[in-house]
Structure formats: C-alpha cells, structure tokens
Design goal:
Elements (H helix, E strand, L loop, with lengths): L6 H6 L1 H4 E4 L2 E5 L10 E4 L2 H9 L7 H17 L4 H16 L6 H20 L4 H28 L7 E5 L3 H13 L5 E5 L6 H12 L3 E5 L4 H7 L4 E4 L3 E2 L5 E4 L2 H10 L4 E4 L24 E2 L2 E2 L12 E4 L6 E4 L2 E3 L5 H4 L8
Parallel strand pairs: 4-5, 4-7, 5-6, 7-10, 10-14
Antiparallel strand pairs: 1-2, 2-3, 8-9, 9-13, 11-12, 14-15
The structure holds ligand LNRAV4D5.
Length: 350
C-alpha cells in the first residue's frame, strides 16, 4: 500500500486503522510505525482480540478493530444455524471487548452494537458480515464527526501562536485539533511527551504534528517540569480512556504527574473526550497492568539486567481538581459537573 505523505491522513484513513475484507482483518502495526509500515493480518476474531491486547493498534484504533473483528466473527460463523451464529457472535463480542480491561465498557458499545445489527440482519435473512461492517463504518463516522467538534472547541482555547504540551496519542483528537488550529491560522508550537514505554507521543503524535507543518519538539517524560518552567507552555492537553461522571479521568501512565505539574505551574489542563455514561466515579476505573518486560526493553533491547524487576500500569487516574475542563462534542464542561453533559445541559464552562 502506497504511503501517502501526510501521516495523519494516512493514519486516519479507515482502511489503515483496521479493515475487514474477504475473511480477514488487516491492522496497521502502530508498535513500529512510522519507521516501518506493516499490517498484521488476522484470520479469526480471536487473533483480532489478541492484536488489540498486544497493542498492534492503540488509542481509538481498537474500537475500529473491534467492529471489524465482529465482521470477521460473523464470517467465521457462516453456515451455522442462526442460534449458533448469535451464540458465536455473543462470545466474540465478549472476548474482543474485554481484550483490554480499562476500556472494556467503551469497546462493548461497539461490539454489542455489531451483535444487535447482526441479529437484525439474520432475522431478515441478510448477511451478518455486511451488517457488522456497515455498523462499524457508521460508528467510525459518528466518532470522527464528534471528535471534529471536540477539536474545534479545544483549538479555540489555544492562545495565538501558543505553546501546547501533549501526552500520548489520541489519534482522532490529535487529528482534529491540528486541523482546527490550521483552520484558525494558529501557528502553535507543540511539545510532545514521548510517552514511554510504547512511545505513542514520539512516534505517532510528533510525526503527525511535524508532518502537518507545526513546530514540534519531543521531550522525554522526565522533562515535563523543565519544559513547563522554561519553555512557556500555555496549555496541557490529553485525551482520555475513561472519563467518569465525577470528573476523574484515566489516561496513559504519566498523565497524572504532568497534571500535577500543570497545577503547580498554573498551566491549564484540558481533557478531551466523551464522558462514560456508565462510570459514576473514579473508583470504578480498572487500571490495566501490562507485562513489565515491555517497560524494561525497547523493540527487544533490554535496558536492565535479568535480576531487575519492572512494572507497567498502562494508565493512571487524574482527579478532577487537577483538570481545568473536559472538552466534549457539546462544549467544555467543568469536571465536577459532567452530569450536565448527560442531562443535555449546555456547556457550564465560563
Ligand atoms: C481515545 S483513547 C486515547 C488514549 O488511548 C491511549 O492509550 P493506549 O495507547 O494504551 O491505547 C492513550 O491513553 C490516549 O490518550
């Protein structure tokens, strides 16, 4: 596949995130992008669930992979009785949505949506594969248009030619934020925390920012305080894997410490995303614990001797008092008043 010159456009193209075609799902391998552009091919839905657990794709990529995985599961179940097909798809929905614990509730929305679409299609004698595929494209379109609004609300907060710090890579928001800043003719400078151990910030965010012509600097995660003290950071922003209704958010490990620094340096911190309807408070957030070995080596090169232990919590939780605002598709909300978002009240952020 020819790699277009705009990494962002390339990364946001549906078929490059994850794509179902003729009995297999192809997923862009973000573990090695952009130094290599390769795709992992999955021939069973279980291989898709494993690819999600192994972070072949990350951020919002797993939502697309989950839907495409359900189309593959429907393909695998073809030829069974309708009852057996729905039992197979229900198991697939559970296995795929629980590939990573922290975002299982959000993933379930995608996989159970596909299951419902498949049930409807089978009842009408139509293809469950096509139903899952169409449902996935529809949810992608809805997510991209919602995140476009989020990107516009966020970019409107950026000072003219301001300096922004980011953490990790939320592909949809990074894409929409950069496009909105471009539309606003706002030549922001961006400091991307590299986000060890997976390096989403260095490999993915910084690549997209630089490719779109923004002045982009990668900092190691331990430089955040220095950068806030000496580089005139105007605003810190991150996406979120979970946004509880009491204002606690979970995001990539390291976000919590940058949020504390932002408070200390009086740098506003804006979290982007749609609050989780079914998460009432921070205590309900499950933190995924990943294989510590992944934190003790990079691309197979160990950084410690075998006797040394490691740890790798994938996310941490930021309390609402460190968050200036939650930037949603309906506007910006004070983290303590997120219930207003679900009650259809307009933004309560002034
Ligand atoms: C829309 S979720 C974006 C969120 O996901 C990333 O986590 P991971 O790379 O482990 O999938 C990171 O926390 C991003 O902010």
């Amino acid at each position: 596949m020819e790699r277009c010159d705009q990494d962002l456009a390339f990364m946001l193209q549906y078929e490059n995130v994850a794509w179902y075609e003729n009995g297999k799902v192809r997923i862009l391998d973000r573990r090695i992008y952009p130094t290599e552009v390769t795709f992992v091919e999955c021939r069973t839905y279980k291989e898709v669930a494993k690819a999600i657990a192994d972070m072949v794709t990350q951020s919002a990529g797993p939502y697309t992979a989950a839907g495409m995985g359900m189309a593959l599961a429907a393909h695998e179940a073809e030829g069974k009785t309708e009852k057996e097909q729905l039992e197979f798809l229900a198991q697939a929905s559970y296995d795929i949505s629980h590939a990573r614990p922290t975002t299982a509730n959000r993933m379930k929305i995608v996989t159970e949506g596909c299951l419902a679409a498949a049930k409807e299609a089978l009842a009408k004698g139509e293809s469950a594969v096509d139903a899952c595929f169409a449902r996935t494209i529809d949810s992608l379109n809805r997510r991209y248009s919602a995140m476009e609004k989020v990107g516009e609300y966020l970019a409107a907060l950026f000072p003219k030619n301001g300096t922004i710090m980011t953490q990790c890579f939320g592909e949809t928001i990074i894409g929409m934020m950069l496009r909105a800043a471009r539309k606003n003719k706002n030549d922001i400078r961006i400091y991307c925390a590299e986000t060890r151990p997976y390096l989403q910030g260095a490999r993915l965010t910084a690549t997209c920012c630089a490719q779109m012509g923004f002045d982009t600097t990668v900092i190691t995660d331990n430089m955040a305080a220095y950068a806030m003290q000496r580089k005139g950071i105007d605003l810190f922003t991150s996406a979120a894997d979970t946004i509880a209704r009491d204002g606690h958010i979970a995001n990539k490990i390291g976000t919590f410490q940058i949020a504390i620094l932002a408070k200390y340096f009086e740098v506003p911190y804006y979290v982007t995303g749609i609050p989780d309807k079914d998460k009432m408070h921070g205590g309900e957030i499950i933190i995924e614990e990943r294989d510590p070995k992944q934190a003790l080596s990079y691309r197979g090169i160990p950084s410690v001797i075998p006797q040394v232990k490691g740890m790798y919590p994938a996310f941490d939780v930021v309390p609402p008092h460190l968050i200036s605002g939650v930037v949603t598709d309906k506007g910006i909300y004070v983290p303590y008043l997120l219930n207003d978002y679900f009650e259809g009240k307009v933004s309560n952020f002034y």
